[in-house]
Amino acid sequence: VKELEIIEGIKKQAGKPGKPVAIGIGDDCAVLYKDKKNYLLWASDMLVEGTHFKIKEAGYKKIGKKAAAVNISDIAAMGGVPEYILVSLGVPSGIKKSFIGNIYKGILGTCKPHEIKLIGGDIVRSKKLVIDVSILGTVEKNKLLTRSGAKKGDLILITGPVRDGKKEHLDFRPRLKEARFLTGKYKVSSMIDTSDGIALDARRICSASGVGCKIYSEAVPLTRGLSLNDALYFGESFELLFTMSATQVQKLFSDKALRQKGPSFFIIGEVTHKKDGFRLVNKNGQINTLKKKGFKHL
Amino acid sequence: VKELEIIEGIKKQAGKPGKPVAIGIGDDCAVLYKDKKNYLLWASDMLVEGTHFKIKEAGYKKIGKKAAAVNISDIAAMGGVPEYILVSLGVPSGIKKSFIGNIYKGILGTCKPHEIKLIGGDIVRSKKLVIDVSILGTVEKNKLLTRSGAKKGDLILITGPVRDGKKEHLDFRPRLKEARFLTGKYKVSSMIDTSDGIALDARRICSASGVGCKIYSEAVPLTRGLSLNDALYFGESFELLFTMSATQVQKLFSDKALRQKGPSFFIIGEVTHKKDGFRLVNKNGQINTLKKKGFKHL
């Protein structure tokens, strides 16, 4: 995918960031040293009218909601706690003040339950509506989750039935609770949010970890009406995709807190050797390649 | 100005940020507690094709340069040292890879002399080119400069002859050296960068500080060919506007380091009582109101 190549190019241009940076370009967040016990997490995600939403379909409040939620999801995917946001907003010159108010209502309403504070940003004129949220969060050093720790033999899991990104991409709950539950009690070897579809995001974990993967097509949990194809290749569902050793998964599934009213997790595949590539296996054992495609941001 | 009203509205909606936030919405950067001795500075500035640049006139490299420079200027205005950036980039779907490369060349070339590291961001599809840079920096607690400390009787200064924002807005050097020189050796009571013109930015200092001001029209230093009107009301010059007590100014102007090869500073006005408003005074003593207008981001 073009986007991945371009990001690789930027990474080379930018060079190695040096000591106080734990992780630079190439994960859901950048990771900086904060203090002895904690890392600072930092991400930004841009939403553009026409690419990520249509105003008439979405309405201003839901656009604001999504702009906050995709960023919160980035912090969740690293195992952290979101704390602050800046909002850069580009709006058409004639826009009503109440529309701008509704955008911020959507943003602030999504931030409030997590006690995330809006503390600055920018507002400029733009023909098409564009929102870029920058988010800061914190994660305890021993709870940091990255894309790069998956090991051969680990199982691949997902936080919930994949939702229809085409219909529900504006109105999802970032899987913050699930991520904090997992990283607080279990050893999660890698994690990512499925913003671009299971196929592409599993590939991202695999290339960061130097492994391959096998997805069991029948095991992917789908919400009513969603096709496997869209779950794999459309994205915008924002569930968390993660890997754990089989022993850890066994512990997880016998967790009482989980069985009673906790979040639900689903095994959908297995981490394999790098040379085995990216495979999709059905119940009859037929093997297909997991295609290299996903949500087209670019 | 509409932008100021809207920002006031957002500030009300967002509410008080609470303890770990030293300054939220309403200065050049948000300010967070970092450690015993330092604050974390955080800002984002969005540039949109058509509003802030035209691609044909500017070229991709200079657009990248400006995107980095306006953010570095925000950190300078708070007395700090810029350290890291994230870049969110929206580009048309057919754009050449080399054009994207040139944007990052401009960004990285501007960051390099200051040892600022690019550590992440986002890249998406957008009809019009849009860049939002988010920047993190650090400032020693006793060196933090804000908009809110100007006192009646203080003098108003600027870091250099005002340049022609219409022509040079893509290619300016953020006044980082000047700000660090000042905050390291002198008591600066307030500071802002003149992104939107002296009139509007002086007004911002005044409303944050609860004072009025008097600008001496003949004292405003202009680069060759620039009209006073554009210096006051057009902006995009990115000099730093700041206030100091008369005693501090006297010390500053007798500073040997400054007289030999240091930066140059110019007195352009005086801080007055709030009730005296915003005035423009010429050499004959004629008084005009400093108009409430500036660069139209919105």
What report would you give on this structure?
- The structure is a homodimer of 298-residue chains.
- Chain A is of the alpha+beta class and 298 residues long.
- The first copy, chain A, has helices at residues 2-14, 55-58, 60-77, 97-111, 165-168, 176-185, 198-209, 228-233, 246-253, 256-260, and strands spanning 21-23, 30-33, 38-48, 81-91, 117-125, 130-140, 155-158, 190-193, 212-216, 240-244, 266-272, 278-281, 287-289.
- In chain A, β1 and β2 form a beta hairpin.
- The mean pLDDT of chain A is 93.
Condensed summary:
The structure is a homodimer of 298-residue chains. Chain A has helices at 2-14, 55-58, 60-77, 97-111, 165-168, 176-185, 198-209, 228-233, 246-253, 256-260, and strands at 21-23, 30-33, 38-48, 81-91, 117-125, 130-140, 155-158, 190-193, 212-216, 240-244, 266-272, 278-281, 287-289. Chain A has 298 residues and is an alpha+beta fold.
Key words describing this protein structure:
homodimer, 298 residues, alpha+beta, seven-stranded mixed β-sheet, 10 helices
Q: What integer value in Å does the Rg of chain A equal?
A: 19 Å
- Helical residues, percent of chain A: 25-40%
Q: Give the helix/strand class of chain A.
A: alpha+beta
Look at the structure and give the mean pLDDT of chain A. Answer: 93
Distance between the termini of chain A: 9 Å
Biggest beta-sheet profile of chain A? 7 strands, mixed
Helix run count of chain A: 10
Oligomer: homodimer
Any chance you could write out the topology, listing elements then pairs?
The structure is a homodimer of 298-residue chains.
Chain A: H1 2-14, E1 21-23, E2 30-33, E3 38-48, H2 55-58, H3 60-77, E4 81-91, H4 97-111, E5 117-125, E6 130-140, E7 155-158, H5 165-168, H6 176-185, E8 190-193, H7 198-209, E9 212-216, H8 228-233, E10 240-244, H9 246-253, H10 256-260, E11 266-272, E12 278-281, E13 287-289
Parallel strand pairs in A: 4-5, 9-12
Antiparallel strand pairs in A: 1-2, 2-3, 3-6, 4-6, 7-10, 7-11, 8-10, 9-11, 12-13
Helix pairs in contact in A: 3-4, 3-6
